[in-house]
Amino acid sequence: MISVNICNNALEAYITLHYLPEDYKNNRGKLTEAIQSALKKANVNYGIMYEVLNGELPLNTPILIAKGKPPVHGTDSEIRMFQIPEPKPLLIDNDRVNHYELNLIHHVKAGDWLGERIDPKPGIPGIDVHGNEIKPDEGILYPLLYDQNSVLQVRTEGKDVLYALKDGAVHYVGDTIAVYDVLEVNGDVDFNTGNIDFNGYVNIKGTVEDNFVVKSTKDIEIESEYGIGGVKLIESTEGSIYIRGGVAGKGKAKIICKGNLYAKFISDAEVICEGSVFAGFYIRNSSIRAKQVIVESGRGQIVGGNIDADIKVECADIGNRMEKRTLINIRGFDRESLTDEMNDLSDTIHSRKKQLNALKEKLRSLNMNAEKSRNEIKKIQQEIFGMQEEIKKLEKQYTDISGYLKTPGNGALVVKNYVYPKVRVTIQNQVLEIMKTEYRPTYVLKEGLIQAI
């Protein structure tokens, strides 16, 4: 007796020879014909491995006898877009030169490349052991999202390419790429230009003279190597601010931003920042409110003034040998709450990825009847792209919180070199007066007291 078993979505057929050894020996000559008859009866007519019939055929054991041709699934469209990296200042600090370089605004000219979508590749049908065609999964055509007022789509050689329609700064509005207006001031902001209040990006090649105002909805760059002095106000309502040459505020400069502030140094100024403040070399006699305050140089200083941060303050030296009064306040954070938030984000990311896979499967099934499902296909393509962007943002939030949780305690003052007397450290309303010079302490709140660890 010969049994035929079809498996793996009809891509494989196995035979099993149910014979006694003596019967097998006596009927070996007629066995090939009997197997072919059994295969014909089971409608196995493609991919039969005839060479198997001529070899040893073990008894009562499944033997692979036919293999279909699996389909080659299509590949999804590939999208490459203009990348806007996270701002990371380049600090050059040696005996000859001190620089704090950063590219905050990403300029483009009309006609510059902004992105492209390579067409999906079609699949190749397969054949099962019954000779039936197996349809492949077709590649998904993902949407290419762009602002039609500032970006042009051009069809060329199997792909769609995006180009800037105008000079400006590349920016993403959600998951849609756009080119925003940039106000470029080739010199200084002074009586010739007047105060600036601009809906977009502002790039100032020179400085901002004392008592003048620069306000913008987006990022602001001030590129003068001499920085700014006693300005009245520099404010970005939605973006970050980069001041290449630093801030010598003369006791009246005020800087406000939604994102981060990057400056070579900050002196005698007031800063209110919803993000983090990064100073290259020092902060002196300034009032700063921010998420984190970090002075990056290995010889950096925070001397005088009042530093008020949520997560941490980090610097080489706090205070100085002259025992200048310096106030450091760490509001702190709820580690358990942040951990719960990070776990919730992890669960949400996992859930969104499952939803994304389900949408992709639905889109593949709709692609088999594309003519009737064109509107629904377009809708699901948009959902897929939106889901991918949401996952990206959730993963960034997860990474940010993960970074905060690496802070010792529930908020910390991290001193990489020395902390000097007359520095007052406050962590979650507990106060410590530094009475003597300490080397490389990290202060956290532990058992209700501020302690060095």
From TrEMBL:
Domain (Flagellar Assembly Protein A N-terminal region): residue spans on this chain: 2-173
Residue ranges the record marks as coiled coil: 342-397
Keywords: Coiled coil
Highest taxon of source: Bacteria
Gene3D superfamilies: 1.10.287.1490
Pfam families membership: FapA, FapA_N
Alphabetical list of InterPro entries matching this protein: FapA (IPR005646), FapA_b_solenoid (IPR046865), FapA_N (IPR046866)
PANTHER family, A to Z: POLYMERASE-RELATED, RNA-BINDING PROTEIN KHPB N-TERMINAL DOMAIN-CONTAINING PROTEIN
Annotated protein name in UniProt: Flagellar Assembly Protein A N-terminal region domain-containing protein
Species: Thermoclostridium stercorarium (strain ATCC 35414 / DSM 8532 / NCIMB 11754) (Clostridium stercorarium)
Lineage, broadest ranks: Bacteria, Bacillati, Bacillota, Clostridia, Eubacteriales
